[in-house]
Amino acid sequence: MATVSIRAARKSFGSLEVLHGVSVEIEDAEFVVLVGPSGCGKSTLLRMIAGLENITAGEIAIGGRVVNTVAPKDRDIAMVFQNYALYPHMTVRDNMGFSMKLAGAPKDLMEQEVQKAAAILGLGELLHRYPRQLSGGQRQRVAMGRAIVRHPQVFLFDEPLSNLDAKLRVQMRSEIKELHQRLKVTTVYVTHDQIEAMTMADKIVVMNHGNIEQAGPPLELYDRPANLFVAGFIGSPAMNLLRGSPGQGGFVTEGGALLPMPTSANGAATIYGIRPEHMRLAPEGGIAATVQLVEPTGSETQVWARVGDTTLSCAFRERIAARPGDEIRILPDTGLVHLFDAESGQRMN
Amino acid sequence: MSVTTTTTGPVWVRRPAEQGWLAKLFDWKPFLIVICLLPAVGLLMTFLTYPLGLGVWLAFTDTTIGRSGQWIGLENFEYLLEDPLWWNAVFYSVFYTGIATFAKFGLGLWLALLLNQHLPFKSFVRAVILLPWIVPTVLSAIAFWWIYDPQFSIISFLFVEVLGIRDTNIDFLGSAWPARFSLIGANVWRGIPFVAISLLAGLQTIPPSLYEAALLDGSTAWQRFRYITFPMLLPILAIVMTFSIIFTFTDFQLVYAITRGGPVNSTHLLATLAFQRGIPGGQLGEGAAIAVSMIPFLVGATLFSYFALARRKWQQGEAND
User: Fold this and answer.
1) A15: exposed, middle or buried (C-beta count within 10 Å: 0-12, 13-18, 19+)?
2) CATH code of residue B214
3) pTM, full prediction
4) Closest to B216 (Cβ–Cβ): which among A72, A132, A133?
């Protein structure tokens, strides 16, 4: 168990700088998810923690010890790779026990540790199999087992679920979360999937273009995104972000819709953000909108509605019978509106 | 939602095209099979099966040049078993193949590992490595002939004139053992590129993440080679080795161009001895018997590679990735 401190870490490949001074503090036993679009530098940062990439500038400390020049094997970390990186010529048992074998551990101790990890992950029946003979989810578990056997101070996961199908992904997501609660090992988890980030993390670090956009607990990021990027990235379906300007009686979008302004606004916000699930159906009053498209998912109904030339995505808990072309009346929940400055992208309320 | 389709006016219907007899013939499967197979089968029969069959048949006759022979059964082989020159060629063929293969794989694997690293001018170096293989064998044989020349050898020059280690020129090809090793040296030089490039291709199929995983598992460089590179390279190593053994055992050009089997028949391989007996010597039957006597060795080497090295358990199972 250990804390991980990343202080002003920079990484350059040749003349190309991919991380521009990133700082993150990770508490002991915390589950931190690095999330961002591909190419944002999240995997590079993870590989720098692992020691697979050197650190161009700044510091990374694990358990208070600066590891910039420490060899990967001496950092006391274990990593689960995106493609699992299982040794194809070794059985599950040998894969999981490989690190102990290299360390010269006695055979019976190795067997004991492997059995213990296999029991945790439900791999007991598969120990004699080769990776080829396993399904995707089983391979994923073996990769985790290999990490568990080492009793590391920090677990690193590099997009571990991206090769699995949707159903298995949800299942493995909860298994990893459960495993973390059981072992209480500091975990850094990289993904591009914001749902994974929201559901698993104690703390989410949103990255973009080699910078940290915002770091904090999942719901804080959801409720108070610090800038336009986080607002657009976190949440599914994505937040409506509408350009315009505050005018008489509300916010006038470029498309000509008039939306109610929250009272907390300071300064002249130029982007109006409202999550689809914070749009309400108004029995009377509200804004008249024309339904363009209806997508029922069972638990909610997603509606694309047109106000003037502005299209708003709305998600209603209630089932509505509207058809494309129908007119409905909608109203944003004024208390949950996010205002941003278009130029700086920063939050204004 | 309801779908209604209304049809008005004449409907265009595609009419099946009339087929001529030629089109019908080409649609007839047995005819197609024969047509498609004919070129390949013809080439194989003419250039592979016929010469091989003729060779095997000749081995059981006493044919000489200019006189068609009689069937004499195993007489040629019985004679060979008592022929010290044949035994000598068997010994040297096995020795030549063994030592050369060992050296080629040792050096070739080392070179492949080296080329798999990030080197400056990597692609240029790789191209240069291939050169010995691209040069026609006879040309490189002539080059080696010069390198091994008793008077003008560059190696002798280096030792005698430049380094001053020796007083006399080295006698590379004048006596039996130096000649044997000199030929092995030339063969190794020629064979390394094939091994190195093939193994390099094999190395590049090993995912880098395996090495990263092993690095995190705490492996040393030697352990990564021992537990990851080598076992994962073994299947391709087996195939390359099979080919290499076959090519080396049946080698003809290098030996014939450099020593012609001399001095005193000490460097005859089975292939050169077969040619020597059959064509310049005129004893076609006996030459063919020598050539046929190579087959058991080759089959043995192939079976060894195939069963001992080629297919591993971990490669089996469903190929679902």
Assistant:
1) exposed
2) 1.10.3720.10
3) 0.79
4) A72
pLDDT greater at residue A42 or residue B310: A42
Cβ contacts of A62 within 8 Å, gap of 6 or more: A2, A3, A4, A49, A75, A76, A77, A153, A154
Could you give the number of structural domains in chain B? 1
Paired strand residues for A61 = A5, A66
CA B173 to chain centre: 25
Closest partner CB to B210 (pick from A87, A103, A132): A87
Highest averaged pLDDT of the listed ranges A199-213, A253-267, B163-177, B251-265: A199-213
Q: A149 pLDDT exceeds 50?
A: yes
Q: For A237-242, what is the mean pLDDT?
A: 90
What token pair was written down for A215?
């770091």
Q: For tokens 């050539």, what's the residue?
A: B291
Q: How far apart are the first and last CA of chain B?
A: 43
In a domain, B265, yes or no: yes
Structural domain that includes position B79: 75-315
Instruction: Give the closest-approach CA distance of A102 to chain B in angstroms.
Output: 6
Mean pLDDT score of chain B, rounded to an integer? 87
The tokens of B246 are what? 């076959």
Predicted pLDDT at B318: 45
Question: Phi, psi (5° rounding) for residue A190?
Answer: -105, 135
- Quick check: is B41 in a domain? no
Look at residue B231 and give its three-state secondary structure. helix
Q: Please report the pLDDT score of residue B237 as a whole number.
A: 87
| B312–A132 C-beta distance less than 8 A | no
Amino acid, single-letter form, for residue A313? S
Please indicate, yes or no, if residue B52 is contained in any of the structural domains.
no
Give the closest residue to B274 by CA, choosing from B86, B81, B87. Answer: B86
Report the mean per-residue pLDDT for chain A: 89
Residue A12 has a CB neighbour count (10 Å cut-off) of 13
Cβ contact, residue pair B314, A90, below 8 Å: yes
- Residue A99 at interface with chain B, using a CB cutoff of 8 Å: yes
pLDDT at A177: 92
Distance from the B109 Cα atom to the nearest Cα atom in chain A, whole angstroms: 20
Q: How far is A28 from chain B (nearest CA, A)?
A: 21
Element containing residue B278 per DSSP (H, E) = helix B270-278
Residue of B nearest to A86 (CA): B210
One-letter amino acid of A27: E
C-alpha neighbours within 13 Å on the C-beta side of residue B315? 10
For the segment A328-339, the average pLDDT, to the nearest whole number, is 89
Provide the shortest C-alpha distance from residue A85 to chain B (in Å). Answer: 5
Which ipTM score applies to this complex? 0.83
Residues 109-148 of A with CB under 8 A from B: 130-133, 146
Which candidate, A31, A42, A313, A278, places its Cα nearest to that of A177? A31
C-alpha to C-alpha distance for B82 and A79, rounded to whole angstroms: 67
For residue A80, list its beta bridge partners.
Answer: A157
Nearest CA in chain A to B313: A89
Residues in Cβ contact with B29 at an 8 Å cutoff, skipping those fewer than 6 apart: none
Q: Which of A239, A274, A237 is nearest to A259 (CA)?
A: A274
Q: Is the residue at B26 inside a domain? A: no
**And the tokens for A80?**
């689960």
| Predicted pLDDT at A264 | 66
